[in-house]
Amino acid sequence: MKLAAVLFAIILMTGCSNWIYRIDIPQGNFLDQKDVNQLRIAMTQEQVRFVLGNPVVEDSFDNNTWYYVYDMKRGMRKRGKDFRKELVLKFDSGRLSSMTGDFEKPEEFDTPLEG
């Protein structure tokens, strides 16, 4: 009788596992395409920091490469899938020279800022 009660309780508990709330865990720099659209070739590192904030990683061996990385670990599958977005910026003599990653290159990227 006790064994049947224990088995019944275990079955009920496994059915309730979806009721447990698990939080999403975001890490890194969240960037939106509208932020990336403000980038222009030949921007200084200070101007890029003003627009996007500090990079998550500045390459220790190459100070001219910045990495903006954002990871989202979903706590519950019904809120979507885990995802990762990254943006890699390269500088030449302290000026932005190229961008790669998961964001679209802005239409006006190759047009330097005036001034």
UniProtKB/TrEMBL annotation:
Pfam families: BamE (PF04355)
Highest taxon, organism lineage: Bacteria
GO CC terms, sorted: Bam protein complex
Domain called Outer membrane protein assembly factor BamE: residue spans: 28-98
Listed InterPro entries: BamE (IPR026592), BamE-like (IPR037873), BamE_dom (IPR007450)
GO BP annotations listed: Gram-negative-bacterium-type cell outer membrane assembly; protein insertion into membrane
Localization of this protein: Cell outer membrane
Subunit structure comment from the entry: Part of the Bam complex.
Name this protein carries in UniProt: Outer membrane protein assembly factor BamE
Annotated source species: Agaribacter marinus
Gene giving rise to this polypeptide: bamE
